[in-house]
């Protein structure tokens, strides 16, 4: 779904504040207000560009709403993927923030230095990985609790995304119990669901962030399973 959203115009920011970057107005988000889980809100802002500039100043900020009639900026650390996730309010302008090599349409958490996309089509591990690598990407690398918490919050922020489970980077196919990322780096952080991993040698060698309990904790999954997936673009 995210790939189908249209971009309207670029709003340039003061280059003294950050090296590269811009806000992208998501045309699909006209007249949409998301009132939940915002980071913070300020009042008495007269232009939406001011909201974009303020969002750029905070590395946690991924998207911002300018509520014109209230002259307020509403900052978020997630990207809202669907108008159905918000309420309708005339005059609200929505911007997503990307910088550097993270292209529009991706979720860019500058604080965590990750750039990624959720893919809401359910396909096999091999096909999902092939889709990521076709763009020079890999499955999302979750190597600390902050990234896990952020990605879970991002998934939960979308009414469509939160109904799925996702392939993430990491495998113990080469050596059972020795989990490594795509580049061979040993994994040291895990967000296993209770009782996982469950696989024995040669089976369940891949990581799935499971929708069970709406927690998106991990289980070890099989290569033949069909799941949704998250691709990450290196910056
Ligand atoms: Ca295994």
Write up this protein.
- This protein has 2 domains: 2-98, 3-Layer(bba) Sandwich (Hepatocyte Growth Factor); 112-232, Mannose-Binding Protein A, Chain A (Roll).
- Helix content is 14%, strand content 31%.
- Strands 9, 10, 11, 12, 13, 14 and 15 form a 7-stranded mixed sheet that branches.
- It has 235 residues and is of the alpha+beta class.
- A hairpin with a 4-residue loop joins strand 5 (63-67) and strand 6.
- Bound molecules: calcium ion.
- Calcium ion binds at residues 172, 176, 199, 203-205, 220.
Keywords:
single chain, alpha+beta, 7-stranded mixed β-sheet, disordered N terminus, binds calcium ion, 6-stranded antiparallel β-sheet, Hepatocyte Growth Factor, 3 helices, 235 residues, Mannose-Binding Protein A, Chain A, 15 strands
Q: How is the main sheet built?
A: 7 strands, mixed
What order do the SSEs take from the amino end to the carboxyl end, as H and E? Answer: EEEEHEEEEEEHEHEEEE
**Overall geometric form:** elongated
For the record, the count of structural domains works out to: 2
Known CATH architecture of the largest domain: Roll
Give the low-pLDDT segments: 1-21
Structural class: alpha+beta
Query: Which oligomerization state do the chains in this entry correspond to?
Result: single chain
Q: Could you give me the name of the CATH homologous superfamily of the largest domain?
A: Mannose-Binding Protein A, subunit A
Assess the beta-strand content as a share of residues: 25-35%
Could you tell me the CATH topology label of the largest domain.
Answer: Mannose-Binding Protein A, Chain A
Mean pLDDT: 83
SS elements, strand count: 15
């Amino acid at each position: 779904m995210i790939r189908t959203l249209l971009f309207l115009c670029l709003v340039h920011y003061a280059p003294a504040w950050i090296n590269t970057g811009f806000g992208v107005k998501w045309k699909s988000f006209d007249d949409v207000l998301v009132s939940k889980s915002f980071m913070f809100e300020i009042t008495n802002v007269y232009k939406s560009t001011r909201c974009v500039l303020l969002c750029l100043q905070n590395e946690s900020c991924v998207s911002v709403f300018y509520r014109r009639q209230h002259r307020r900026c509403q900052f978020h650390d997630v990207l809202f993927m669907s108008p159905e996730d918000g309420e309708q309010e005339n005059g609200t302008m929505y911007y997503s923030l990307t910088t550097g090599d993270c292209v529009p349409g991706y979720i860019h958490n500058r604080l965590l230095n990750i750039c990624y996309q959720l893919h809401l089509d359910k396909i096999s591990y091999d096909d999902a990985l092939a889709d990521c690598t076709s763009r020079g990407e890999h499955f999302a690398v979750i190597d600390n609790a902050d990234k896990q918490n952020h990605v879970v919050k991002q998934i939960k922020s979308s009414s469509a995304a939160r109904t799925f489970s996702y392939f993430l980077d990491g495998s113990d196919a080469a050596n059972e119990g020795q989990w490594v990322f795509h580049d061979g780096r040993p994994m040291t952080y895990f967000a296993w669901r209770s009782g996982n991993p469950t696989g024995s040698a040669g089976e369940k060698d891949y990581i799935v962030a499971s929708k069970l309990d709406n927690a998106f904790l991990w289980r070890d999954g099989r290569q033949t399973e069909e799941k949704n997936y998250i691709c990450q673009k290196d910056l």
